[in-house]
Known about the structure:
With 422 residues, this protein is an alpha/beta fold. Helix content is 33%, strand content 18%.
Amino acid sequence: MGTTRSAVITGLGFITSIGNDHAAVRRSLCEGRHGFEPVKFLGNPGLPVKVLGTIKGFKADTPNWRDWTYPELYQLPRETLRGLSPHGLFALCAIEQALADAALAATDVTDGQTGLYCASAGSTLLAHFHVSRLLASNGERCHPLSVVSSIAGTLNFNLAAHYGIRGTVGGFVAACASSSHALGCALDDIRLGRQTRMIIVGAEEATAESILPFGAMGALSQQSDPTLASRPFDADRDGFVGSAGGVALILEEAESARRRGAPIYAELAGWGSAADGYNIAISHPEGLGLKDALRRALADAGLRPADVDYVNAHATSTPAGDRSETMALQSVFTAAGAHPRISSTKGLTGHPLSMAGVMEAAFCALAIKDGFIPGNAHLRNPDPVCAGLDLPRETLAERPRTVVSTSSGFGGSNVALVFKQV
């Protein structure tokens, strides 16, 4: 990059299936508490999808913001709520947490040196609602905020306006690798001096409109037992469990953060991305794109495979996806004589699609600062293809110095992020 500027994580905010604040998320990760509940989509008990990663304390499953309920600690103005989607509510609350965690006031992010990157697939709930009304009225009824509340850029539109962001603002749409791309590009912006601080947020809804289409692809688990539904790397896995929420992360130029006395979780030390060039929906069987992303990330951070203590794997619990990632991990680490601890926290959270990358990056930051390595919840019978990988079942009281987080999405989009203890 031709620069010595580095970036550190100074704030985290969580609205997730395993908790809506630091303490709850940390407790869930350490104690193996999953966030799954039984679900009956569309009131149809015959549907094969029986389990969902749910957000507790929030009710935002209707198109009308007036019907939503959320914790009283969030004082949200009516004019902001009017343009939000349900997952926009999750994102806004996560950012509120992250700013407070980073000891930042709302006025601190209007300086032109603070940017905002978002990841979202949009709100299929609101898109369906607004288009249905449009068609039913022969084009005569359409809410004036229907576009900005429902399309994929809804987070950047609403949140940038709400916070008065004058730095760079953008949205990332790369399926399940979206928020990891956002983090990598945010790192580059800070390294190159384009921005001093970046807010990265990912958020998704888990409604019939957003989750059931994955069932039509054969990607969702059909288990009714929450302890069997999401089990990455297990030989008997049968698909992922959908999840929702919002997670925000504050990334700052290191010297600027230190000067203002900001709390620091970890350094985002490098990243790499690569595509499979193979299939629109299925990862390359040998994990070719993820191999390249991992190698590029390690090179960017100036590290060797043996330097990595822990890998937070993307592994969603689909048979093909987990196998592809296993092949990449074996090629990059095992073949080099490196044996980092490896786990997928989706055994607890389920898969929240585009927000997975920033959520798991935040988990990595917690692990580095608080000194633990999450275990592989619900892993009972490891797939034989995982031979040579260190897959702890329980959370370990070990402080990792260097952590890698992986993300993979449709179209073979792969990202690896490297975090270091500061």
